[in-house]
Prior knowledge:
2 copies of one chain form a homodimer. Chain A has 129 residues and is mainly beta.
Amino acid sequence: MIPESHADLLSVKGFAHAATLGPDGAPQSNPVWYDWDGAHLKFSQTRTRQKLHNLERDPRIALSITDPENPYRYLEIRGRVVAIDDDPDNAFIDSLAQKYIDQEHYPWHQPGDERVVVKVLPEHATTMG
Amino acid sequence: MIPESHADLLSVKGFAHAATLGPDGAPQSNPVWYDWDGAHLKFSQTRTRQKLHNLERDPRIALSITDPENPYRYLEIRGRVVAIDDDPDNAFIDSLAQKYIDQEHYPWHQPGDERVVVKVLPEHATTMG
C-alpha cells in the first residue's frame, strides 16, 4: 500500500496535514503528530474537537506528509478511520511527546481533556519527489 | 477574515497543504506553493491534474499553512475557488519559482503542460500557536 520509496516518512518527525470533512461535506485541514504501527497511521485527538466529530460522521481522511529534510518530497495517504480508541492514561499522546519534543509527558494537556487514539487504515497512497 | 496575528503566513515561503474533494466526495491533500494578492490565496496547477478536476466539480477547499520557522504555529484557510485563470506565458508559476527557489523560470515545466492560476476566496480561518 505504502510505496517502499516513501515508507521512511511514516517514522520521521514530520507533520501530517489531516484533511477531513466538515458537517456540510467541505474539507478541513490541520497538521497533526503521528505514528505508524505497521498497518495504521495513528494520531491523537481530544474528544471534543471538531475533527473527531467529523470522523465519527464520515471516516474518510487524507493525510499529506512532507519530508522534514526535503519539502519537495511527500507522501499522501488516503483511507478511513477504523478505530477511535480511548487513551485513558495518555500513554499514546505521551509517546508522541517523547518522539517529537523529547518530553516524557505531553506538556499542553488541559484539565478535563479526554484523549483518544485515531487509527487510519491506508487505502491509497500518492507520492512526489 | 485572516487574523492579524497570522497574516504574515500569507507571504512567507511556506507550503499550503491543499485539501479538495475527490469524485466520491472523499478528501485529498497535497502541498502547494502559493501567493497572496491581498484578497485571494493563489496557487498554480496544470490543466490535467486531478486536483483541478476536483475543484471544477466542487470549489470548496481548505489550505493549512505551517510557519516554516515554527511548526507549532499554523493558519488554516477554508473557502472556495472563485476563478481558474489561464497562465499562458507561465508568468504566475515563474513568479512562484522566483519566490520559492530564486529561479526566474519554473524548472520542472514539462512540454505540453498548460498552467492555470487557481484563486481561492477565504471564507473562514482557524489558527494555532
